[in-house]
Amino acid sequence: MNDRQGKLLLLAAAVLIAMVLYPPFVVSDRGYTRNAGYGWLVFLPPPQGGAIVNIPLLATQELVVAAAFAAVYFYLGRKRNV
Q1: Pick from 35, 42, 37: nearest CA to 21
Q2: Is 6 helix (H, G, I), strand (E, B) or coil?
Q3: 60, 31 in Cβ contact below 8 A?
Q4: Inter-residue contact 23 to 44 (CB < 8 Å)
Q5: I want to staple 69 with a disulfide (CB 3.0 to 4.6 A). Which of 8, 12, 22, 62 is the partner?
Q6: Cα–Cα distance between 21 and 6 in angstroms, integer?
Q7: 22, 39 in Cβ contact below 8 A?
């Protein structure tokens, strides 16, 4: 692992942790589910109470971001013949 890859791993970890701390929320009411926006994990998004974290959306976002960081990581690690 080179220096740029190490910095990229730190950035990736910071972004993924931030995504978990600021997740998407949904509100379910009488069979309907609607988006409640994003908010800090310890506070529900105002003014709606009863919001829960939208786990499928958060997992999808985490996977896409992790895949993008992985692609850049491997790109930075390849040897260049210049």
Answers
A1: 42
A2: helix
A3: no
A4: no
A5: 12
A6: 23
A7: yes
Q: List pLDDT tens digits, range 39-79.
A: 888 876 555 567 889 999 999 999 999 999 999 999 998 87
What value does the mean pLDDT take over residues 5-30? 93
pLDDT tens per residue, range 25-38: 998 878 888 898 89
Q: How far apart are CA 53 and CA 72, in angstroms?
A: 29
Map residue 38 onto helix, strand or coil: strand
74: left (phi over 0), alpha (psi -120 to 50) or beta: alpha
Amino acid letter, residue 40: W
pTM here is 0.82
Which amino acid, one-letter code, is at 46?
P
3-class secondary structure, 61: helix
Is the pLDDT at 12 greater than 80, yes or no? Answer: yes
Structure tokens at 29: 């009411």
